[in-house]
Design goal:
By secondary structure, the chain is α+β, with helices and mostly antiparallel strands. It has helices at 38-53, 67-81, 85-89, 95-99, 141-167, 171-175, 198-203, 254-259, 305-310, 324-332; strands at 28-31, 57-61, 105-106, 118-124, 187-193, 207-212, 218-222, 229-232, 238-240, 248-252, 269-272, 283-289. An 8-stranded mixed sheet has the order 1-2-10-7-12-5-4-3. The longest helix is centred in the middle third of the chain and has 27 residues, at 141-167. The structure holds fe (ii) ion. Residues 30-110 form the Non-haem dioxygenase N-terminal domain.
Length: 375
């Protein structure tokens, strides 16, 4: 086993919670420890349905990741994200890999579509075993891999079974759309947001990441003490997501929205500069982004009586149906990218929007599925 002395791990210290009175969104919580009980599972399916047809976000407890493992992952994420730039550069995704759609390693410094202050390190679940990680991660890769697989094969699997219950589909049929090993793009991510300079804050309207919908099936994130995530609620108002230690936050992406004909919503959300008392904090996060099988057609699931009964069995985009791989490629070029930061209007003389650089599709002016308050 490699020594940890030469590559020490830094301790991540959570930032103190914000004392500001923020307008928090009320999210449904699923306690997954109730999953194995038949009655509990049925209640979870009802809550799942409510959360994903209304706010599009929920929290998860009882997920099976202990506080110790959670803390160790946060230490690893913190150490990874605070490496000096010259060390990060050694593990950056190369332009060739990027062209092939391989989404692994650090992002290119100051890469297209992001602030310089946003950085992340992606680990593909089904990537090449040969890929080299920064040395401090090596002694912990076995544990980290266990966490990645737990999120995919336990947490995501349970979410898919709840989805099958909501759609009245055989669970095996739904699980077959997300077979372990058949997605080349699902990944686990360490991420950080360093404070934006005054100038960058003004230029970007205080948006670290403008309003957007995620791309895949589920986005699962470890909750973060630095408040910055805002969700567009069902009345068309951006609300903050509150920090609750050791819960996970889950939202659905556009693949699942398209697979359910819009019954489940890929809710718009964004990352803004934190409240005044957390403005100088480094925001470190851990994410898992789930994806369907590469060759799955992203259209309403055919064998759901619920989608048929409720009229959600028509494609949301009648002009084109992509496979998961094709869809993600189109997303890279701006397909179905919304523009909803209407509460922070853009002044061409003051503001810029690096997020939309190089898009070849036009911007979505409305959500794919109608939201009261936005039309
Ligand atoms: Fe997102």
């Amino acid at each position: 086993m490699a020594s940890t002395i030469s590559c020490p791990i830094s301790k991540w210290i959570p930032a103190p919670s914000s004392k500001e009175r923020l307008d928090y969104i009320q999210l449904v919580n699923l306690d997954l420890s109730r999953f194995d009980d038949l009655e509990g599972r049925q209640e979870l399916a009802r809550d799942f349905y409510k959360a994903f047809t209304e706010e599009g976000f929920l929290t998860l407890s009882g997920h099976g990741i202990s506080e110790e493992v959670w803390a160790q992952q946060m230490d690893l994420a913190y150490t990874t994200m605070t490496l000096p730039p010259e060390e990060k550069a050694l593990y950056e995704v190369t332009p060739e890999e990027d062209k092939q759609g391989i989404y692994a390693g650090f992002k290119e410094a100051g890469g297209k579509g992001f602030h310089r202050e946003i950085d992340f390190y992606n680990m593909l679940l089904n990537g090449s075993k040969e890929r080299i990680h920064p040395p401090h991660l090596n002694p912990y890769m076995e544990e980290t891999r266990k966490v990645m697989l737990h999120v995919r094969d336990d947490i995501q699997r349970k979410l898919l079974i709840l989805l099958a219950m909501c759609l009245e589909m055989p669970e095996e049929e739904l699980l077959a759309t997300h077979k372990p090993g058949l997605s080349s793009s699902e990944y686990y991510r360490y991420m950080s947001y360093s404070p934006l300079s005054e100038e960058a804050t003004i230029k970007s309207r205080g948006l670290f990441m403008p309003g957007h919908a995620d791309w895949g099936t589920f986005s699962i994130l470890f909750s973060q003490p630095v408040c910055a995530l805002q969700v567009l609620d069902k009345t068309g108002v951006f609300k903050w997501v509150e920090y609750i230690p050791n819960v996970m936050i889950v939202n659905i992406g556009q693949c699942l929205e398209l697979l359910t004909g819009g019954l489940f919503r890929a809710t718009i959300h964004r990352v803004v500069t934190p409240p005044q008392d957390q403005k100088k904090e480094l925001r470190v996060g851990i994410f898992y982004f789930s994806r369907p099988n590469d060759d799955l057609l992203i259209e309403p699931l055919r064998n759901s009586p619920v989608l048929r009964r409720l009229g959600f069995d028509k494609p949301l985009d009648p002009n084109i149906t992509y496979t998961a791989t094709g869809f993600l490629e189109a997303k890279k070029n701006g397909y179905l990218k919304p523009d909803f930061d209407f509460d922070r209007p853009r002044d061409a003389k003051l503001h810029s929007d690096p997020f939309r650089e190089g898009d070849s599709f036009s911007v979505l002016a409305k959500p794919l599925v109608a939201v009261p308050g936005i039309s």
